[in-house]
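Input C-alpha cells:
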C-alpha cells in the first residue's frame, strides 16, 4: 500500500516507514509473515509565519439588579455598560484577575469592548464582545456573558381572617433577595387598588374587609409585588340562638330528671354549632338537644364553626309540678265478706289522680271536684269485700297522677274484719253413727235443716237417722253466720282380700302382694287406712277414680305391698304368712292374709384348672380349685381334699364376708402347687390331679381333675470350630474343638462322636463328663467337648479351603434322636492385586481389584487415590465400583469396600476430564489396603495413566515502525491458541523482505524464546537500525 508523509523543509525533519519480513519457527512449526515494505515519497511545503494576538475575559459573571445600570466600573465586571465600542487601557485590562490580552511579538495596538442586551427584568443578559488588535492588523475576539438577575421577592407569611363578629384581619409578609444591605427594603401598601398609599409598614393589623397589595423596593430601586392581592374577608354576623318550643319538656314528676329542651342557632360562621350548658363547653354537643334535666334555669352557650361564642347566651327554664301526696284515714268493723270505706286526702302532682287499692286490676280515676282550686281533694274509697283485718296504708295503696308519678302515702285506715265461723269435719255419717263438727270462734248456736235425717246439738255432734242430706249452720257471738255445711247420711259396708305372688320360693327374692278393697254399701267411705306390717306397709295403686281419697260406693281400690325374702329366710325354711287390715271413718278394722311356701335345695360344683396344659422341663405346676354354691341354701364346714399336690390346697379368696359360710352364688378360690422333677420328665407319664369337696349340707363328695401332659423333646447340637483361621503350607495342622450340647428336655446316653477328616492319631478325644460324676449320661443342658487334629495336604492347598465334619449318635431317655453333625471350614490365605490401566483423557480408568482364589469369608479393603503427576482437576465424579462384573455400580466417596465370600474381583471406575489443555502424559495410583486382615498381603497398588488429546497452534502479529527512529527496539508478539501446562519453546529467525538486514534492522537466526506454562504469549524483540 502507498503511504505519504509530509515533513517541514525549514526544520529538516524527515520520517520513513519501513517493514521487515520475519519468519518465526516454533516447536509447533507455526509461522507468521509481515506485509512488504511500502515505497517512500517526500513532499516539500513552504510555511509563512504569522502571529495572532490572544484575548480572554472571565465568563459568565452574575450581578444582582434589575437593569444595565447595575453594570458599572465598580461592579465585578469592572467596566460600565456601553452599547457603543469602548477602548480600554491595556495595562488596566491585564491587571484585573482572569483578564488577559497578549501577542507573541508584543505589538498589541488596541483592546475594545461593546455590549448587547437580551432579556428583561428580572433576567437580563449582557453579551460583552472583547477585541484585541496588533499593529499588523491581526485581530482576535472573545465574548463575555454577564447576567443581571433581580432576585427580589415577597411572599405572605401569615394572613389572619376575622373569624368572629367584631374581629379584624392581619397580614404578615416576608421580603427577600435583591440588595437590601443599605437601608433595607421600603414598602408601599394600597387598598382596593386605590391611588392613595394605605401604609408603608411591612405588616398590617386591624384590617377591615378589602383587597390589599404591596410594592417592595430594594436599594437598587428594584421592585416586586405580591403575585396576588391579599383579600381580607368581612367578619361573620352575630350568633342568634332560640329555643324550639315544640321540643320543650318540663319535669313530669317532682324531683325527677326528665326535663328536656332543644336550642337552634343561626348566624356567625355557620354550622357546625357547638352547644353546652357550661361556660367552658364541657359536655357539649352539636345538636342543641339537652335531656335528663332537673327543674331549674339553664344558660345555653353556643359556638359557631369558627369557635366564636354567642355574646348573649339564652336562658331556658324547666319547671316541675308540686310533690304528689296522699293521706289515708278511717276506722271500721265488719264481718268477713263485707265492704268498708276509707278516706284518701289527695294533693299535688298532675290531675287526674289514679288510686289503686289492694291490687285492683284497674285504678280509679279521681279529679278535684270541690269548690277550691288548690289541686287538693278528699276522696272516699269503698273497698271490695274483705275477709280479714286490714290496715290500708302505703303498703297496699298506690296513688299516681296523669304523668304516672307516684305519691308519698302517709296515714292509715284500719278495718277490723270478724271472720265468719267455719264448720269443718266429716261430711258423711252412717246410719246409727255420729260425727262431730268443729267451728272457728266461740259461742253461738247450731242449726240442722232437716232433723228427720240428722240432728245436731250445741257441741256440733251430728247423729245419722235415715238416708239423706241436711244443711248444718252456725251463728257466732258477733252475729256472723257460717256458710251451709252439708252432711249426708249413708248405709256403710266393705270387703278386703289379699293375694301373694309367688306362692312358693327357692331363692332369695321379692314377694309381691295385691290387696283389694271394695265398697259394697251405699255410702262413700273416708279416711281409708290399709296397713300391712309384715311387708312394711301397703301402697295405693289404682281404683280411686271419682272423689280423691274417698272409697265411693261400688268402687274397688287396689293396694300393693312387697316383702324381700333373704337368704336367711331361705335357710330357715319356715313358710311366710302375711296379714293386711283396713279401717275407715265409718267402718272398724277388717283383715285378710296370704301364705308363701319356702323350698330348700343345697348343691355345689368344683372346677379345677392348672396353669400349664403341657410341661417339658422341671418346674412348678400351679392349680386353681373353684368351689361354687349352686344351690339355694348356704353351705357350712367346707372340706377340700387334694393329695397329689406338694403344697396346699389353700383358700385364697371368695369368702367376701369372712363368715366361713359358702353363701349361695359365692365361689371360693383355692390354690395348690406341684413340683415337677427331671425324673418325671424322663418318665413321660401325664400328671393327673383330682380334688374332692364336701360340706355339712352336701355330704357326697364333688370331684374335678386337671391334667398336664409331659412332653419329651429330645434334641442336641454338634458344633465344630478350628483354632486356626487359615493355612499356608503342607504340614500345617488344624486343631478342632467339637462341642456336643443336650438342648432337649430328656437325658441322653450312649453318645458317640466320629470325624472322618481327623488324623487317626490321636483321633477324636472326649473331655470330662461335667454333670453326674462321669455317669456317661449327657444331662439336659450339659455340654461335652471333644478335640481332633487335621494335617494340611497338597490337595488342601490346591482346593483353597478345607472343610471337616464331625458326626454324633446317641440314645435319649424318651423319643427318638437323629444324628447331629458340625462342620468347620478353613480358607487358604488369598493374595490381593490391583491392575494398571491406560486411557485417553475423557475416558474412565477402570481398575480390576482381584483375589488369587475364592474366599469363604468377606474381604474388606479401603481404596485410596494418590496423584503422581495428575491433579484433582484431571479426574471427576462419580467414582464407582461393582462387585458383580459391572451389572450394578455403587458410588464411592470414602470408606471401605467389601469383597463378599465367593467373589474374586471388584471393578473400580475413576472418570477423567477432557480439559482442552495441552499437557504431558500423567499418572495416578490406586491403592487397596486390606482392613479385614485375611489376605497374605496388606495392600496392593495399580497405576492409572492418562494420555493427552489436545494440540496447540501459534501465531505472530505483524508490526510496523517509522524509518528514522534510530536504534529502537520493536516487539513481535507470539501467541498460543490455548493455555499450556508446560513451557513452550519457540525458535525465531528473521528473513529479509524489502528491508535490509544490517541497515534497516538487525537480523536473528534460530534464537529461542519461551512461553511460560500457564501463559499464552511472549514478546520477541527486533532492533530497528532506521
Amino acid at each position: 500500500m502507498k503511504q505519504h508523509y509530509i515533513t517541514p523543509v525549514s526544520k529538516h525533519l524527515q520520517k520513513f516507514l519501513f517493514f521487515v519480513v520475519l519468519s518465526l519457527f516454533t516447536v509447533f512449526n507455526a509461522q507468521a509473515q509481515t506485509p512488504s515494505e511500502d515505497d517512500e515519497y517526500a513532499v516539500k511545503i513552504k510555511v509563512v509565519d504569522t502571529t495572532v494576538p490572544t484575548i480572554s475575559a472571565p465568563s459568565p459573571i452574575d450581578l444582582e439588579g434589575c437593569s444595565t445600570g447595575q453594570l458599572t466600573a465598580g461592579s465585578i465586571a469592572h467596566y460600565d455598560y456601553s452599547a457603543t465600542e469602548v477602548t480600554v487601557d491595556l495595562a488596566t485590562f491585564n491587571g484585573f484577575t482572569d483578564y488577559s490580552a497578549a501577542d507573541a511579538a508584543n505589538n498589541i495596538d488596541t483592546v475594545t469592548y461593546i455590549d448587547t442586551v437580551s432579556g428583561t427584568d428580572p433576567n437580563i443578559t449582557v453579551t460583552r464582545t472583547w477585541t484585541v488588535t496588533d499593529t499588523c492588523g491581526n485581530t482576535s475576539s472573545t465574548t463575555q456573558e454577564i447576567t443581571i438577575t433581580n432576585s427580589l421577592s415577597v411572599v405572605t407569611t401569615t394572613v389572619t381572617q376575622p373569624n368572629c363578629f367584631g374581629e379584624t384581619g392581619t397580614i404578615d409578609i416576608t421580603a427577600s433577595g435583591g440588595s437590601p444591605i443599605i437601608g433595607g427594603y421600603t414598602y408601599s401598601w394600597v387598598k382596593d387598588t386605590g391611588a392613595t398609599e394605605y401604609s408603608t409598614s411591612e405588616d398590617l393589623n386591624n384590617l377591615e374587609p378589602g383587597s390589599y397589595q404591596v410594592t417592595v423596593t430594594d436599594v437598587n430601586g428594584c421592585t416586586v409585588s405580591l403575585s396576588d392581592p391579599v383579600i381580607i374577608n368581612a367578619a361573620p354576623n352575630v350568633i342568634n340562638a332560640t329555643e324550639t318550643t315544640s321540643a320543650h319538656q318540663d319535669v313530669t314528676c317532682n324531683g325527677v330528671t326528665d326535663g328536656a329542651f332543644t336550642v337552634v342557632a343561626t348566624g356567625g360562621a355557620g354550622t357546625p354549632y357547638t352547644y353546652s350548658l357550661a361556660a367552658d363547653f364541657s359536655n357539649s354537643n352539636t345538636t342543641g338537644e339537652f335531656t335528663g334535666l332537673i327543674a331549674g334555669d339553664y344558660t345555653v352557650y353556643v359556638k359557631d364553626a369558627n369557635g366564636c361564642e354567642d355574646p348573649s347566651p339564652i336562658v331556658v327554664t324547666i319547671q316541675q309540678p308540686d310533690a304528689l301526696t296522699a293521706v289515708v284515714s278511717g276506722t271500721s268493723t265488719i264481718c268477713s265478706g263485707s265492704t268498708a270505706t276509707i278516706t284518701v286526702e289527695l294533693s299535688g302532682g298532675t290531675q287526674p289522680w289514679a288510686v289503686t287499692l289492694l291490687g285492683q286490676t284497674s285504678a280509679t280515676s279521681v279529679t278535684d271536684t270541690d269548690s277550691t282550686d288548690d289541686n287538693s281533694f278528699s276522696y272516699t274509697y269503698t273497698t271490695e269485700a274483705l275477709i280479714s283485718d286490714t290496715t290500708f296504708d302505703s303498703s297496699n295503696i298506690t296513688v299516681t297522677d296523669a304523668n304516672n308519678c307516684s305519691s308519698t302515702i302517709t296515714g292509715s285506715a284500719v278495718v277490723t274484719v270478724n271472720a265468719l265461723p267455719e264448720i269443718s269435719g266429716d261430711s258423711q255419717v252412717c246410719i246409727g253413727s255420729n260425727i262431730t263438727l268443729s267451728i272457728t270462734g266461740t259461742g253461738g248456736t247450731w242449726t240442722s235443716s232437716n232433723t228427720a235425717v240428722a240432728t245436731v246439738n250445741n257441741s256440733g255432734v251430728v247423729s245419722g237417722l235415715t238416708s239423706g242430706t241436711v244443711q248444718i249452720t252456725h251463728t257466732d257471738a258477733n252475729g256472723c253466720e257460717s256458710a251451709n255445711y252439708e252432711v249426708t247420711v249413708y248405709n256403710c259396708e266393705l270387703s278386703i282380700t289379699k293375694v301373694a305372688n309367688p306362692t312358693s320360693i327357692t331363692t332369695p327374692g321379692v314377694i309381691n302382694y295385691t290387696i283389694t278393697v271394695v265398697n259394697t254399701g251405699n255410702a262413700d267411705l273416708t279416711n281409708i287406712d290399709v296397713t300391712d306390717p309384715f311387708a312394711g306397709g301397703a301402697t295405693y295403686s289404682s281404683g280411686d277414680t271419682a272423689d280423691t281419697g274417698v272409697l265411693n260406693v261400688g268402687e274397688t281400690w287396689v293396694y300393693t305391698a312387697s316383702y324381700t325374702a333373704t337368704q336367711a329366710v331361705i335357710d330357715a325354711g319356715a313358710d311366710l304368712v302375711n296379714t293386711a287390715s283396713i279401717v275407715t271413718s265409718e267402718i272398724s278394722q277388717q283383715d285378710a292374709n296370704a301364705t308363701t311356701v319356702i323350698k330348700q335345695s343345697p348343691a355345689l360344683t368344683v372346677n379345677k384348672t392348672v396353669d400349664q396344659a403341657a410341661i417339658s422341663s422341671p418346674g412348678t405346676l400351679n392349680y386353681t380349685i373353684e368351689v361354687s354354691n349352686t344351690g339355694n341354701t348356704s353351705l357350712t364346714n367346707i372340706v377340700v381334699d387334694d393329695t397329689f399336690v406338694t403344697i396346699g390346697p389353700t383358700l385364697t379368696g371368695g369368702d367376701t364376708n369372712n363368715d366361713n359360710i359358702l353363701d349361695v352364688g359365692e365361689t371360693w378360690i383355692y390354690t395348690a402347687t406341684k413340683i415337677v422333677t427331671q425324673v418325671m420328665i424322663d418318665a413321660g407319664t401325664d400328671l393327673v390331679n383330682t380334688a374332692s369337696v364336701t360340706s355339712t349340707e352336701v355330704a357326697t363328695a364333688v370331684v374335678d381333675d386337671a391334667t398336664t401332659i409331659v412332653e419329651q423333646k429330645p434334641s442336641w447340637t454338634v458344633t465344630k470350630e478350628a483354632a486356626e483361621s487359615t493355612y499356608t503350607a503342607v504340614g500345617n495342622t488344624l486343631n478342632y474343638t467339637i462341642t456336643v450340647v443336650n438342648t432337649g428336655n430328656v437325658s441322653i446316653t450312649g453318645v458317640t462322636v466320629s470325624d472322618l477328616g481327623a488324623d487317626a492319631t490321636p483321633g477324636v478325644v472326649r473331655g470330662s463328663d461335667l454333670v453326674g460324676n462321669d455317669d456317661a449320661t449327657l444331662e439336659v443342658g450339659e455340654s461335652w467337648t471333644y478335640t481332633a487334629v487335621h494335617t494340611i495336604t497338597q490337595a488342601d492347598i490346591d482346593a483353597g479351603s478345607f472343610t471337616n465334619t464331625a458326626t454324633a449318635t446317641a440314645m435319649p431317655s424318651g423319643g427318638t434322636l437323629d444324628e447331629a453333625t458340625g462342620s468347620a471350614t478353613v480358607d487358604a490365605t488369598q493374595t490381593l492385586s490391583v491392575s494398571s490401566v491406560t486411557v485417553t483423557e475423557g475416558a474412565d480408568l477402570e481398575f480390576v481389584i482381584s483375589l488369587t482364589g475364592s474366599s469363604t469369608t468377606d474381604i474388606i479393603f479401603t481404596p485410596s487415590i494418590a496423584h503422581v503427576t495428575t491433579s484433582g482437576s484431571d479426574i471427576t465424579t462419580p467414582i464407582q465400583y461393582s462387585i458383580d462384573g459391572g451389572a450394578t455400580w455403587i458410588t464411592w466417596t470414602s470408606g471401605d469396600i467389601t469383597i463378599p465370600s465367593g467373589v474374586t474381583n471388584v471393578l473400580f471406575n475413576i472418570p477423567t476430564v477432557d480439559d482442552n489443555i495441552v499437557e504431558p502424559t500423567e499418572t495416578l495410583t490406586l491403592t487397596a489396603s486390606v482392613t479385614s486382615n485375611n489376605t497374605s498381603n496388606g495392600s496392593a497398588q495399580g497405576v492409572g495413566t492418562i494420555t493427552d488429546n489436545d494440540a496447540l497452534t501459534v501465531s505472530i502479529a505483524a508490526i510496523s515502525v517509522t524509518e528514522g527512529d534510530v536504534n529502537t527496539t520493536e516487539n513481535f508478539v507470539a501467541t498460543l491458541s490455548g493455555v499450556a501446562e508446560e513451557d513452550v519453546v519457540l525458535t525465531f529467525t528473521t528473513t529479509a523482505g524489502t528491508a535490509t538486514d544490517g541497515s534497516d534492522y538487525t537480523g536473528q537466526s534460530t534464537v529461542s524464546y519461551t512461553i511460560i506454562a500457564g501463559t499464552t504469549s511472549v514478546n520477541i524483540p527486533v532492533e530497528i537500525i532506521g
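Residues 830-947 form a domain with the Immunoglobulin-like fold (CATH 2.60.40.2030). Confidence is low (pLDDT under 50) at residues 1-49.
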